[in-house]
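DATA SHEET
Item: assembly model
Revision: 1
Owner: S.N.
Input lines:
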Amino acid sequence: MAKSETYTQQMLTIEVAEGDDTINAVWRGKSIDREPAKFITPILTQMVKTSSGTQKRVTLDFRELAYMNSSTITPIIKILERAKRGSTSITVLYDKSLKWQDLIFSALTIFITKDKRVEIKG
Amino acid sequence: MKNTKDTMKVTLRPDWDEIEPLRLQAHDFFGSHRLSGDVIQSLVMVLGELLENSVKYGCYKVSDSQIQISINIGKKIITIEVTNPVDDSNLDDLKRLDRMIQWVRGYQDPFEAYIERLKEVAKRPLHDKESGLGIVRVAYEGDVILDFFVSEDNLLTVSAVLTR
């Protein structure tokens, strides 16, 4: 994986940057595609693959995301479920001051692991 | 677009690209009624999700078929209605819609329904296209009461009612 790469689909941009210890994905814009998983899943899958080879933590940063439809939530929770059952370390960052983000992302605490390998932070 | 002070009525082509501009129009409409930013965001989300379902699952065999949207802001309730044509080919979709709405209603707290649905959807294969989160998200995040009916001329109306 390149050190930094930006992926854009319609109004959604995902900027992925690999650092020494982390692989960060910053989400910006709006995710309103009819089938957003087609765009999102390969990006998340590649991040998880890179993480498994390097032991780097994956961070999904949604704080700058203005909106996402329910179809966007699906690939995210599938990756979290797989991370919870597997060995990937993953952190989800969201803006607690935005009510919609607080409602959507606080519910994802069902994927948290006791060892904090999977974290949801608002 | 018909737009009185408290009512917005719009027709829309069943085209995915029409949804976002309408969400923005609705955002402005809600904003003109001194609703809080959070309530506006929530209502626009409700409208968006219902429109997405309408485009996905409506029956548009006639070339000029359209989706009808009606929004009314009352003193005590805010109502969003989305209407689209259906036919016998939608029977399974309608049954699924009915099941989902009844299932959500079975929970005292829609948050619990949302959690259960998240757990279920998360376990599906990565390549599985179906989302299945729209209705429960509308009920939970939108904090609305959902209902639907099908008229004799095969028009499905899904309504979302927010108590102020």
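QC remark: Chain B touches chain A at residues 16, 19-20, 38, 41-42, 45, 48-49, 52, 55-56, 111, 114-115, 118-119, 121-124, 126, 129, 131-134, 137, 140-141 (CB under 8 Å).
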